[in-house]
Amino acid sequence: MSDVVHIGMLGCGTVGQGVVRILQETAGTIERATGHRLEITKVLVRDLQADRPGVDPALLTADPEEILGDDSIDILIEVMGGVDPTHEWLVRALGHGTSVVTANKQLLARHGPELLAAAEEGGAELRFEASVCAAIPVIKVLRESLLAAEIESVTGIVNGTTNYILSEMRRTGMSYADALTQAQEIGYAEADPTDDVGGADAAAKMAILASIAFHTRVLIDDVPYSGIDDLMSDDVDIAHELGFVMKLLGVARLVDGAVSVRVHPALVPGNHPLAAVAGADNAVLLESSMVRQIMLSGPGAGGTETASAVVSDALSILGSRPGSFLAGALVDAGRPIAPEGSLESAFYLRLEVADQPGVLARVSSVLGDSGVSILTVLQRGEGEGARLVMILHRSPEAQVREATRRLAAMPEVRAEPVVITVVGSGEASS
Amino acid sequence: MSDVVHIGMLGCGTVGQGVVRILQETAGTIERATGHRLEITKVLVRDLQADRPGVDPALLTADPEEILGDDSIDILIEVMGGVDPTHEWLVRALGHGTSVVTANKQLLARHGPELLAAAEEGGAELRFEASVCAAIPVIKVLRESLLAAEIESVTGIVNGTTNYILSEMRRTGMSYADALTQAQEIGYAEADPTDDVGGADAAAKMAILASIAFHTRVLIDDVPYSGIDDLMSDDVDIAHELGFVMKLLGVARLVDGAVSVRVHPALVPGNHPLAAVAGADNAVLLESSMVRQIMLSGPGAGGTETASAVVSDALSILGSRPGSFLAGALVDAGRPIAPEGSLESAFYLRLEVADQPGVLARVSSVLGDSGVSILTVLQRGEGEGARLVMILHRSPEAQVREATRRLAAMPEVRAEPVVITVVGSGEASS
Fold first, then answer.
1. Is residue A318 very low, low, confident or very high in pLDDT (cuts 50, 70, 90)?
2. Which pLDDT belongs to residue A57?
3. Could you tell me if A233 and A200 lie in one domain?
4. pLDDT at B428 over 90
5. Which of A198, B20, B111, B305 could form a disulfide with B134 if both were Cys (CB 3.0 to 4.6 A apart)?
6. Burial of A333 (0-12, 13-18, 19+ CB in 10 A)
């Protein structure tokens, strides 16, 4: 690459403007460290007239051909979002040998393996640190530092909105609805929060992380997910009493050589490294017998943070030996996706029950018949509010789900049982 | 680099044998991902007869010339330790264009900038992830992901022995001496623990981290340090009562454009990210306005972990574009080293005092005269055990040291005052 590196940009919203600003402010540092000047030559935008402080209007174009057809562009930065036509455009650029940096999690969770293959064929680099956890360099660490560390599991708090809501429910005792409203007021949650609170956002990120950690094609459709939208603050409080903290976790792991990736609410023990991750922060715990547990944590969102990750990726491309690491190899280990229900775990079970003698005995007997044993029981409330809360010993998930169906059918059980995975507590989990 | 990459090794102790084992076990993964086979061609050892399970005796040599004079070696892995003759040997290899991976913290903390200059002149790479925090990829993250993030501070628990001792003192109430003995029994502390408990080990690591974070020549002699060997378990307990956790911290930061690096015991607020780092774990908190706070944590020692970092570094060399990032530029920003005492901070102050009326008033007045104000006071014990414990508002360190000298001269103060830095608590610190 020559001394001047030509950058094309697709999109110039908050993140794009951040990239422009960081490249200006750190030009001296970058040139001193790398010997290169990064020069933005063209920026694709939809509306040429919109206000973009600090961005030279002469760089703007509304015609994608001016960027996609320009052979002098060395690195294409994609911060426009969306799956179409972005997908097609990036495949075309990579195919021509133009390296690409993208922050587009939805695109990668759907077409990542295909984009990596296009990069390899075109002799280009594809980098996407900013697509997961903003400036926390999880992807670089997995892809480079831990390439040969035989990662066994990736457990992450990868959605800041839900971590904020759960932290506030615990800290103040407020309801899920109130915590969500508060998150919306301070800009931590969108007006339509479905993707965050329902788990879809975390599922896309976990698909990307699992792909890189296990060198396997994992797409968002391979990731079953559930969110926090039906959690009660009672569950958060009872969990705390039992020594646990409630988190929305992404859990990716190898199970008998297959890759299992899930997103769900989970209880983590109070002394677990992920328990201390508060507010809107993100954290990812990487485990292997070679390196034991390495955790990366920090803010998982933010325009400047995301832009910083985009700039890092551009610098990583400058520093990479062309073709030395095969992009396609990132996901070609050919591991299968594990079937649902194949996991073992400990579980938290909450049952609304009739306030009458003998209920606990009958519930215990149903669980026992299903081969599920009880570690801890709490009896709470009375009358209409009577409930049983249990921590169940580590058992196959399918077995616990079957036991729960039988409990739900009991006349003494007054509402759908709540079942929440418990992770990382010695005997009680993997 | 050709398909077969020739590796020479200096040293074959625990870490060296780990490198051999990891290269064997992960050869398939590495070849699939990088297209390269890493082949160890020669290993320098002192004693050819020692037991080294898994290492082919035909590779061993006791003659350094067989490695240093061998032009076919692409990457030299140094895991023999020591400053001399290692220093001279690595300068020679780098000068010939042979890239070097080293785990040698003492060497880097003394001669790092010179080795980086030698690498740049020779057109070689120098990597040293394993020299700090084993497999936690702090150096790669600082050097690559955060190259242009304008890091403002690096705060680390970079010595596992002392973190273990402090965690146990707090958890069990045992004395420093007992916690040290326990650490020695389970292999977390050496028979001669001076380097760990006195802070020198942490100082060497902080010199290396500060160099890379601030692109400046920082050597171990630039790092004032104190250790935990004269801490009382009382201080650990009182700190806890006041909502703090005692840690041995390395603190590197920019102060008016100069680089300040220190190692000392410190109190961190209970909700600070470093407070939750327990046992023998290490953690490093990286702060900048661009990325806010990013923390990396995990085991900071261990033969396999260290060997894993060495292998990562070799892979990073394979993936790097030769000469694209200028090794010397890592430390050539030319920032000065800040003078001692120039920092502002909040402080913990413990005074053994005479048990008589009016002492608190006289102590307060001495502090007030020195311009130091008090945030919190605890009075503890009586008679011979009477003491005052205070948290002092953020003040220049020199001012607090001066006030402490005046307090020490008071007849009512019965022993040398104990002063401990308080970090990261909102108003009370930076």
1. very high
2. 96
3. yes
4. no
5. B305
6. middle
Note which residues in 71-130 of chain B have CB less than 8 A from chain A: 129
Task: Say how many CB pairs under 8 Å bridge A and B.
Answer: 207
Of A383, A311, A424, nearest to A27 (Cα)? Answer: A311
Q: What is the CA radius of gyration of chain B?
A: 24
B321 and B210, same structural domain? no
What residue in A sits closest to B146 (Cα-Cα)?
A312
The answer to whether A104 touches A131, Cβ cutoff 8 Å, is yes
Contact with chain A for residue B290, Cβ under 8 A: yes
Residue in A42, A105, A205, A247 annotated catalytic:
A205
Q: Which of A36, A145, A311 comes nearest B140 by C-beta?
A: A145
CB contact under 8 A, B305 and A295: no
Beta-carbon count within 10 A of A387 CB: 19
Residue B245: name the closest of B422, B395, B376, B385 by CA: B422
What residues of chain B, 221 to 280, have a C-beta less than 8 Å from chain A? 271, 273, 275-276, 278
- Mean pLDDT over A337-357 rounds to 91
Distance from CA of B296 to the nearest CA of A (A): 5
Residues B197 and B165 in one domain: yes
Residue of B nearest to A26 (CA): B148
Query: What range defines the domain where residue A418 resides?
Result: 344-428
CB contact under 8 Å between A29 and B318, yes or no, is no
Interface of A with B in 27-46 (CB under 8 A): 29-30, 32-36
Q: Contact, A107 vs A208, CB < 8 A?
A: no
Count the domains in chain B.
3
Q: Which residues of chain B neighbour A273 with C-beta distances below 8 Å? A: 276, 297
Q: Are residues B11 and B119 in the same domain?
A: yes
Tens digits of residue pLDDT in A133-146: 999 999 999 999 99
Give how far A197 is from chain B: nearest CA, Å: 24
Is residue A337 in a domain? no
Does B338 fall in a domain?
A: no
Q: How far is A48 from chain B (nearest CA, A)?
A: 28
Q: What pLDDT, on the 0 to 100 scale, is given for residue B326?
A: 80
Query: Cα–Cα distance between A379 and A390 in angstroms, integer?
Result: 9
Residues B21 and B97 in one domain: yes
The CA distance from B52 to B29, in Å, is 24
| Closest Cβ opposite residue B148 in set A30, A290, A302 | A30
Q: What pLDDT score was predicted for residue A1?
A: 62
Q: Measure the CA–CA gap between B133 and A315, rounded to whole angstroms.
A: 25
Residues in contact with A146: Cβ distance below 8 Å, sequence separation at least 6, in sequence order: A213, A286, A288, A291, A294, B135, B137, B312
| Whether residue A200 has pLDDT greater than 90 | yes
Q: What is the pTM of this model?
A: 0.95
Nearest-10 Cα torsion for A424, A427, A429, A430: 90
Taking Cα atoms as reference points, which of A406, A410, A416 lies closest to residue A352?
A: A416
Task: Report how far residue B316's alpha carbon sits from residue B33's, in angstroms, rounded to the nearest whole number.
Answer: 12
A320 with B321: Cβ contact below 8 A: yes
pLDDT in tens, A229-276: 988 888 999 999 999 999 999 999 999 999 999 999 999 999 999 999
Q: To 10 degrees, the CA torsion angle through A164, A167, A169, A172?
A: -110
